[in-house]
Each structure stands twice: as structure tokens, then as C-alpha cells.
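Q: Please design a sequence for this.
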């Protein structure tokens, strides 16, 4: 994969981190910054911005606590380098004086092309963006924005409008941490670095595509948050749609970041708008007892969707997506079912749909690629069984998704970020069913969701439930 910088952007010379004392920062950003320092990749000053009136030393203590919690035997030199890079500005995001102090801090470190990272609630994006423009801190700068980028199509469009009053699109980096995962990038590489896949990667050979994102835990005390999003907004519209795009995209027209992004984003425009018939929603028993959850909540903790991509390559091929909490296993997997051979040569080769050749891409708990093929069973009879050709990546990823994404944004590399057109088209696909849908059907924890989800896919062979071996196996 060739990765190139956005034209004319170059490298940022400072990172302004809004929401520096928040929960996301403690769990994700601080470990990512420490890892960047440990790997020799943190070479710009970092200015934390938050509403908490902390002294720099107190802010550094919080950072050390996060590092100690997330790493075994942290490197003292890396910690020292990180702390030497840190600055802190506190103040309300609606107060112009906060941004005056930020601009003064940027001037003091000689930064003229900062990256502003908004790890704050989306409701604050507009005020912060406008204040950055008003104080001059947006000149020659770039914006890194956390998801969710809107709640529906209209809010995403309005958010884009506000952002573009200050930052042009080529300076906006919308984080979807799923794209920063090594295993997701491996899917893109596998598709276009090998020649054997492309001839069969189309409607002439592919019967259906399934994507499963199963989590074996619940909302983990974040019931109030989940009441605002649900499974569709939390993981389907962003994470899993991005995976659809990587699987369905056409080969890029040329090399480099822009060609790859163009090919990926065009997929969303070809996906038909979903209707209520394409969606089954579920809610695990016990969800309504979670703190912060309404006693009559209809929020889905499980969503099963059927997509259709209106393109020459994929016309007539159904795409099935499901994501849920309190599933039997924790696993994210793609199952691509291939069409049966055109003629039955052996008596046992007339397999029912869903039990023939397939490709399987697993992203968690391990990175693996498998091809399902029939092979003859030893003996006189010409009968066989389905076997897997299996490739597993046993090498742990050197970088966390956030380390990779923050580093890429600083360098001006945009491939792993969502773009305006793709974000809006993804919202368009789910926009109707966000409000026009059936009720969330109950399901028992530890199962694969409500039985009604089988109705989406039965004629296409049924769901392929991932099998995860115990860690001790």
C-alpha cells in the first residue's frame, strides 16, 4: 500500500488536544502518545486543552497514572520525552480567552501549522471550530475530529457545513479508529497485493457476503451513552460500513492515497437506502436494568442488516451485517460465500447453499485468513469434506489504532480517515431506518440475537456463527 500525504498540507508542527482530561484521553490518547514517544515518533509539542483548572504537574500526574495502568514496565525515557513535550491550557470552550491562551501557547513553541484534535462531544465542535478561526489558530492548521460525526444525515451535513467555514475538506481528518487497526488494513492489502482474488471477486462467483461483529459483554456501565446511540449508530454506520467499502471497492485508478480513498468512498454512493424490511433490531434481556437506561427503552443492542450495492460488480449479491452485545463470543469476521460449481460431478458435491467454498477474514480475537475448499476423504469412495486452508498472523501489532491515526494526521496522511462524501452517503443509507423501524426484539444474553434475524438471510444459507477457540486451546 502506497501512502502519500494530502497535497499541500505537509507536516503539522504541534498537536492541540481538546478534551485532554476526558475518559477517551485517559484510555486511548495518553497511551497512544506514550507509544509514539517510545517508538521515536513524537516530535512535536502537545498542548492539552480542557476545562479542568489543573496545573501542568497535576495533568502530568494523570498521564503517568494512565501509562502505569495500560503498560507493564513503562520506559522511563519515553515518559520523560512525553512530559517534556507537554503543555496545558485550561478554560471553557465557549470563552474566547481560552483560545487566546491557546494561541499564545502555540506562538511560544513556534508552531505555525498545528493539528487540532477534538476529543470532545460533537455538540461542542461548532463553537470550538469557530473560536479557532477567530483567534487565528486555524491558519495553516488541520482538524482531527472524533466520531460520532453527526447522528443522522441532516446533522452530519450541518456539522460538515460548520467545519468547512474554517477548515477545507483536505485539512479535516475524521477518526474512525477501526480503520487504524492492523487487521483492517491487512484486508485492503490482501485484496490488491494478490492476483488470484480479483477474477472471482464479483457477482459471477460470490453468492453473498456476511460481516459479524460480536461482543461477549454488555454496555459495561455506559447505559446512558448507549441510550443515545444504539448499535446502528455505534458500530454499523461507521465501523462495519467502512469494512463493506474495503471489501466492495473497485481497484484504485492509480497509486497513492487519493486514488485509494476515491475508490473506497465511491462504494457508499452505490449502496441502496435501507428500508425497515432490511433491518432486524434486538435488545438483550437485562439491558433495561442498566444504570442510565430507560425502563421502556427501545434502543437496539443488536442490529442485523441487509444491504444491496447497485454496481456492475455486485448487482444481485446480498450483503449481510450484524453487530451485537452479549453474544456467545467476541469476534469480528467476514464470511464470503462463493457460488457452487456449475455442474455436479460427484455425488456429494451437491451441497446446500451456505456450505460450499468460502473465504473468511477474521479481525478479532486473532488476525487470520481462511479459504474453505472441499477435499477427498481417504478411501475408495469419491466423497469429500469441507476443509480450511488457514493463514494466521501471530505477530502482534506494533502500533495501536490511535497511535497510527494521530501520527498519520500529524504527517498529513489521510487514507485511514473518513471523508465528507463517504460520511454523508453512509448516513443516507441508514437515515430512514433510524426512525422508521420495528421494535427492538428481546434476546437472551449468550445467544446470537433474536431469531427473527434469520429471516433476513435464510434463503442465502443462514448466518455463519464464528467459532472461537478458548485461549488455552
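A: Design:
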Amino acid at each position: 500500500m502506497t501512502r502519500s500525504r494530502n497535497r499541500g498540507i505537509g507536516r503539522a508542527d504541534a498537536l492541540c488536544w481538546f478534551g485532554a482530561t476526558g475518559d477517551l484521553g485517559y484510555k486511548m490518547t495518553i497511551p497512544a502518545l506514550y507509544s509514539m514517544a517510545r517508538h521515536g515518533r513524537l516530535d512535536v509539542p502537545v498542548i492539552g486543552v480542557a476545562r479542568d483548572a489543573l496545573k501542568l504537574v497535576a495533568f502530568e500526574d494523570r498521564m503517568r497514572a494512565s501509562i502505569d495502568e495500560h503498560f507493564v514496565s513503562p520506559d522511563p525515557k519515553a515518559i520523560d520525552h512525553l512530559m517534556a513535550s507537554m503543555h496545558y491550557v485550561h478554560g471553557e470552550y465557549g470563552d474566547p480567552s481560552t483560545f487566546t491562551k491557546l494561541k499564545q501557547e502555540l506562538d511560544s513553541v513556534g508552531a505555525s501549522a498545528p493539528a487540532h484534535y477534538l476529543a470532545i462531544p460533537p455538540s461542542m465542535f461548532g463553537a470550538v471550530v469557530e473560536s479557532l478561526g477567530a483567534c487565528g489558530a486555524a491558519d495553516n492548521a488541520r482538524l482531527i475530529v472524533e466520531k460520532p460525526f453527526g447522528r443522522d444525515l441532516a446533522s452530519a451535513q450541518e456539522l460538515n457545513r460548520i467545519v468547512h467555514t474554517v477548515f477545507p475538506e483536505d485539512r479535516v481528518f475524521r477518526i474512525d479508529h477501526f480503520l487504524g487497526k492492523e487487521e483492517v488494513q491487512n484486508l485492503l492489502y490482501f485484496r490488491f497485493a494478490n492476483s488470484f482474488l480479483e477474477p472471482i471477486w464479483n457477482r459471477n462467483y460470490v453468492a453473498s457476503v456476511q460481516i459479524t461483529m460480536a461482543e461477549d459483554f454488555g454496555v459495561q456501565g455506559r447505559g446512558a451513552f448507549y441510550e443515545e446511540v444504539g448499535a446502528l449508530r455505534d458500530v454499523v454506520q461507521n465501523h462495519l460500513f467502512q469494512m463493506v467499502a474495503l471489501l466492495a471497492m473497485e481497484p484504485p485508478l492509480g497509486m497513492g492515497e487519493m486514488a485509494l480513498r476515491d475508490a473506497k468512498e465511491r462504494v457508499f454512493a452505490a449502496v441502496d437506502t435501507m428500508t425497515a424490511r432490511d433491518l432486524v433490531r434486538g435488545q438483550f434481556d437485562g439491558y433495561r436494568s442498566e444504570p442510565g437506561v430507560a425502563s421502556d427503552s427501545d434502543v437496539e443492542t443488536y442490529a442485523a442488516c441487509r444491504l444491496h450495492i447497485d454496481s456492475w460488480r455486485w448487482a444481485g449479491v446480498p450483503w449481510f451485517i450484524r453487530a451485537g452485545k452479549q453474544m456467545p463470543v467476541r469476534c469480528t469476521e467476514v464470511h464470503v460465500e462463493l457460488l457452487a460449481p456449475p455442474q455436479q460431478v460427484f455425488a456429494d458435491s451437491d451441497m446446500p447453499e451456505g456450505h460450499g467454498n468460502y473465504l473468511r477474514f477474521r479481525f478479532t480475537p486473532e488476525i487470520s485468513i481462511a479459504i474453505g475448499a472441499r477435499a477427498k476423504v481417504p478411501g475408495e469412495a469419491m466423497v469429500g469434506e469441507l476443509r480450511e486452508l488457514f493463514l494466521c498472523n501471530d505477530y502482534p501489532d506494533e502500533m495501536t489504532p490511535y497511535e497510527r491515526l494521530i501520527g498519520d494526521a500529524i504527517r498529513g496522511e489521510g487514507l485511514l480517515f473518513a471523508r465528507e462524501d463517504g460520511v454523508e452517503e453512509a448516513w443516507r443509507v441508514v437515515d430512514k431506518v433510524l426512525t422508521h423501524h420495528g421494535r427492538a426484539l428481546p434476546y437472551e444474553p449468550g445467544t446470537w440475537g433474536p431469531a427473527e434475524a434469520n429471516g433476513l438471510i435464510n434463503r442465502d444459507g443462514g448466518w455463519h456463527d464464528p467459532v472461537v477457540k478458548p485461549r488455552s486451546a
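Q: Thanks. Anything notable?
A: The chain has a mean pLDDT of 89. The longest helix spans residues 223-248.
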